[in-house]
Give the backbone structure.
Amino acid sequence: MAALPCVRAADVLSIRDALATRAPAQPIRNVIRAASAISGIPESELLDDNRAAHLSWVRFAIMAACQRYASYSAIGRVMGRDHSTIIHGVKRALTLGKSDPAFATFVSMLEAANG
């Protein structure tokens, strides 16, 4: 019987990190850039921890625009948030999209900006 190769913990971690970075980060960043350009809010403010309503509104739109082609975890990694926060944001975006035509238009603009 052949011996199995020795696998170090560092190798496992580097493989895990490599797989995690394969997520579609660039399209998510494109949506964030578009949201920043359209709203006039700097990207750094969109990605920080400030819970101001006008920032949350834009973040929810970003989450909704990205959720069609990226996992909640991938969106969360790029935005610096947990996947459960992204799930909540997408649910809020669905509610806002039904009651606020401006929000629905903003999400459509973000989706179009990414192709």
Q: What stands out?
A: The mean pLDDT is 86. The CA atoms of residues 60 and 67 lie 11 Å apart. The chain has one domain: 22-113.
